[in-house]
Specification:
The chain is of the alpha/beta class. An eight-stranded mixed beta sheet has the order 3-4-2-5-1-6-7-8, sandwiched between helices. α7 packs across α19 and α8 packs across α19.
Length: 407
C-alpha cells in the first residue's frame, strides 16, 4: 500500500493575520476621517478560547452603517480664487456682472433712434433713401420741437394770463386769439379765452368770424353771470361758451349800456368757475387798466402780456403800462411781463424798430416781435392756416413764454 503522508497540522499564517489587522486599521482610519467626532460603540464578539484566538483570530469589522462611513469629499483646489478665474461658473459670472436696470438704462440694450428730419435738405435725403440715411433734424426743427415741449408742459393747477394795453388797435385781441389757437394746437388740454373788454370786445368774432358768430346763439359773459350758480359741470358751462376748434371762448357783452358793468367781484367769480375746468386761461382786458373789472383781473393774473406797436406812441404807452403796474402794487407782474410788439400798421422805414425793441426789452422778462401780416392787420378772422410762418412762429414763442411763467 502506498504510504500516506499525513498532512501537517494547519498553522496560522502570520501574513494573513497582518493583512487582516491592516484592513481593519484602514477601515477605522476611513471612519475617523469621515466622522471624527462620532463615538463608535464597542463591537461585541463571541467568546473564544485562547487557543482559537491564537490559531485563527477573528477580526470583527464594524459595518458601514455602524461606522457611518460616507465618501470623503473631493479635495478643494489649493488656490480657489485662481481656480475660479480659470474656470468661472455661470453663478460666478452672474454674481460678478449684476443685471443692469432696464428702466433707468434702456440705452444699454436699444440704440437711440434719431428723430426724423422734416423738410429741407435733410428731409429730402431721408425720403429719397427710404430712411436709410437719417441726418437728424436741422437746428431749426430742433428749436421748433423745443418750443412745442415748452408749450405742452403739464401743469398742476389753473393759471391765468391777462392781455392788456393802454392803447387800442395795436394787436391786443389778435394776439389773444393767435396765442389761444396756438395753445390749443400744442397742449393736451383745451385753453379758455375770456373777453373782459368793457368796450364791446370782438374776441369771439376774431376767432370764429362775424358771420358764424351771428348764426350761433350769442350768449355772453352777462348770461354766464346770471346763471353762474346753476353751473356745476363742464357740460353746463359749455352752453355759455363758443368753440374755435379746441379753443373755448366766453364772449364779451355787446350792449354798450351794460358792457362796462362787469365788476372785479364778478370777474373773480367767473375766474373761479373757469379754474375748475381749465388749466390755462387768457383774458382779453381791453384798453386801459382802470376800468371796473381790472383790479380783479390783475389780482388773479399769474402773468401779463403787454401789447405794443412799433409806432412811437405805442412804445411809449407800453412803457407807461409797466410803470403804472410797478407803482400800484403789481411790481412782480410788471417785471415778469411779456411785451409783444406787433407790426400791425407796417410803419415807415423812419421808425427805428431795433431801438424800440431795445428800449422795451430792458423793463420786462421777454420781448417778442410779431411781423406785419395781412391776416392780423385786416381786423377780421384770425386763423393760423392763413398766417405767415414767421407770424405763427412768433405766436408759438409767446405761448411758450406764457407757459414758462406758470410756476
Amino acid at each position: 500500500m502506498p504510504a500516506v503522508t499525513p498532512s501537517p497540522s494547519k498553522q496560522p499564517d502570520p501574513g494573513a493575520r497582518l493583512t487582516r489587522r491592516t484592513s481593519w486599521a484602514e477601515a477605522a482610519a476611513a471612519a475617523d476621517a469621515a466622522k471624527p467626532v462620532a463615538h463608535l460603540p464597542a463591537p461585541t464578539q463571541p467568546p473564544v478560547s485562547s487557543r482559537a484566538a491564537v490559531e485563527d483570530p477573528v477580526i470583527v469589522v464594524p459595518s458601514a452603517a455602524a461606522l457611518d462611513v460616507r465618501p470623503a469629499p473631493s479635495a478643494a483646489p489649493a488656490d480657489t480664487p485662481a481656480f475660479r478665474r480659470s474656470r468661472p461658473t455661470v453663478a460666478d459670472t452672474i454674481a460678478e456682472k449684476p443685471m443692469p436696470d432696464f428702466i433707468s438704462s434702456p440705452g444699454l440694450f436699444v440704440k437711440e433712434q434719431k428723430p426724423r428730419p422734416v423738410g429741407g435738405f435733410r428731409g429730402a435725403i431721408y425720403s429719397m433713401t427710404g430712411g436709410a440715411w437719417n441726418l437728424g433734424p436741422s437746428p431749426k426743427q430742433r428749436q421748433e420741437e423745443a418750443l412745442s415741449r415748452r408749450i405742452s408742459r403739464q401743469l398742476q393747477g389753473s393759471y391765468n394770463t391777462a392781455v392788456l394795453s393802454l392803447k387800442g388797435g395795436i394787436g391786443k385781441t389778435s394776439t389773444t386769439v393767435g396765442v389761444g389757437l396756438t395753445l390749443a394746437e400744442y397742449r393736451g388740454d383745451a385753453p379758455c379765452a375770456i373777453d373782459a373788454n368793457p368796450d364791446s370786445g370782438d374776441l369771439v368774432e376774431r376767432a370764429l368770424g362775424e358771420g358764424i358768430y351771428q348764426q350761433s346763439s350769442p350768449r355772453t359773459i352777462t348770461d354766464l353771470l346770471e346763471n353762474i350758480d346753476s353751473i356745476d359741470s363742464l357740460t353746463a358751462l359749455s352752453r355759455y361758451m363758443h368753440h374755435a376748434g379746441r379753443l373755448h371762448l366766453i364772449a364779451g357783452e355787446q350792449d354798450p349800456e351794460v358792457s362796462d358793468s362787469l365788476t372785479a367781484e364778478e370777474y373773480l367769480r367767473i375766474r373761479k368757475l373757469i379754474s375748475a375746468y381749465y388749466s390755462v386761461a387768457l383774458t382779453d382786458c381791453g384798453t386801459g387798466v382802470t376800468h371796473n373789472a381790472m383790479s380783479g383781473i390783475l389780482q388773479s393774473a399769474d402773468n401779463l402780456v403787454i401789447a405794443a406797436g412799433y409806432a412811437v406812441s405805442g412804445a411809449k404807452r407800453a412803457r407807461s403800462t409797466l410803470q403804472w403796474l410797478a407803482s400800484h402794487g403789481y411790481e412782480d407782474l410788471a417785471r415778469n411781463a411779456i411785451v409783444v410788439v406787433t407790426d400791425k400798421d407796417e410803419v415807415s422805414s423812419r421808425v427805428d424798430k431795433d431801438a424800440i425793441e431795445e428800449h422795451l426789452a430792458g423793463i420786462c422778462r421777454e420781448l417778442i416781435a410779431v411781423p406785419h401780416d395781412r391776416g392780423v392787420a385786416d381786423g377780421d378772422l384770425v386763423t393760423l392756416d392763413v398766417l405767415k410762418p414767421e407770424t405763427r412762429r412768433a405766436y408759438k414763442e409767446i405761448a411758450a413764454a406764457i407757459v414758462d411763467g406758470y410756476r
